[in-house]
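INFO  loader      accepted 1 record
INFO  loader      residues=353
INFO  predictor   begin
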Amino acid sequence: MAQDPFYNSENWLQFINNEPNSTAYNSDAAASVDENEREAFDAYSRLVIVAVEKIGPAVVQVEITRSVRSRGRQYEDMQGGGSGVIFTPDGFLVTNSHVAAGAQRIIVTLSDGRSFNGHLVGDDPHTDLAIVQIQGSHLPMARFGDSTKLRPGQLVVAIGNPLGFQATVTAGVVSALGRSLRSQSGRLIENMIQTDAALNPGNSGGPLVNSRGEVIGINTAVIRPAQGICFAIPSDTVKWVVAKLIRDGRIVRAYLGVQGQDRPIPRYLVRYHELPFNRGIMILSVASGSPADRAGLTKGDIVIALDGEPITGVDRLHRSLTEAIIGREVPIAVLRDQEKKVLTVRPAMENQT
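INFO  predictor   done
INFO  writer      dumping tokens
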């Protein structure tokens, strides 16, 4: 059998050195392929670069000091920190609750090297979000996007300070939507964004950004030892929590006692019941003895309204569970076995049944 000329040592050396006279290398065909690849990669690179240039100056490093006790003696222990993103020009920034909660001292460092003392305005461990304020003016700020418009496969960029390396950029895609993740408080954070943009310790609290440079999530967790399974809190949840924390410093919630997930409503049911929307929340479980249990809600019900307000998703339900309905009898509309039912529920204060 004749020897393949590609394996001739001279041709091999010409090939790896990319010499034009190589008989084992079709330079014209390769040039065409290379040009197409370059155009695709250049377009991808431009999207990432634009996103980073827009959002990068607003991304900060958050370092905290906590007081801990050991054998009855109190001392300060530097616990590291995470990332954050400024969203107002006068110095309000959002980060994770697990980064900032309980801190005796907070130091915020901007991408240009300036450092500020931070003040914890409020935190919500149930959504793992916290607001910190620094004293400044005309600060770089980020804008929140609409997380409801995200689609699996969409390009996203994560920026933060993993392991102390400031302004680290990673890129990936939205792997899935509507995930649930249990927070450190024990409450499920619903409707999470799953992404494969690499996150490491220190990325917590940093932004997940779309190609337009808008914050569509706050990075919060990774699954170890898995690779490429990372989670972010959607921006629509962040915007609601941020507004409450700035105003009140805390969030008082009503409690129903259900676990649910966003679900589309079949088109024929939308038409039959003349619904103005096509999404609701399918109940996955009902806590025994909870307000929902006492009201007669069951697994498989699709919640479509609470107190007369449409419920089109988990985020919308969270916004409806305010302190204003605690202890009140309010109607809750569900689809059950293709029929629309209206029950009465008396929400309790969270952590009370």
